[in-house]
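Q: Could you fold this chain for me?
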Amino acid sequence: MKTCVGFVALLLAAAAPLSSSMRQAPAGGADRVAALKQALAANKTALKQYTWVETTEITLKGEEKKQERKQCAYAADGSVTKTPLADAAAAPAQQPQSSSRRRGGGAVKKAIVSNKIEDMKEYIAKVKALVQEYVPPDPERIQAAKSAGNMSLEGATLTLKNYVKPGDSMVIGLAPTGTAIQTFNLKSYVEKPKDDDVTLSVTYGALPDGTSYPQRTVVDVAAKKIGVTVTNSDYRKLGS
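A: Sure. Below is the predicted structure, expressed as structure tokens.
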């Protein structure tokens, strides 16, 4: 089950600027995009000073939740290390049953759902790899999309098309002034458009020093009826 829910990469920064000077609104659209690319790189560097707790929840057909909690930190090579916490195996709450027969049926149903999720771990791994292509937004890919004419900036909304795959769409909502990311929404697919579409949305939070982090990430794979919600919390600076 641990391999199914390792969506840590969904939580690694697609974030905002670090200083008040970087939050100033650039003069024009091109300058604003340049400032965004700079801010993404700076914010990721700032996040490397922290450890945090990642809570991942998987649902199948909206039911039978699976949860896992991990302590996360950046390694020297820039990857993220994850250590399962002692209370990670949190099982869904069960309703009291009026008979042993009903209790038995509930246990069987739970086992069936668990097996289904385990059987789909290879597919979930593909979803994970796909999401890693988008989160956090990559400054070089943003530049490539701009050069190819696949980027538009209307007000505070930055839209990138064909960013990783033909036909995909990534919409970043910026603060009215500056480059702080307020919303992040993605539409893509694993293998075939419409057959296994993936939608993703990220809600951001801010740490006391102004560093931005993806507080809650929600992934929906409609064709497989799989939902994944990842929440980041308990950020602490290394050595504190």
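A (continued): The longest strand covers residues 63-74.
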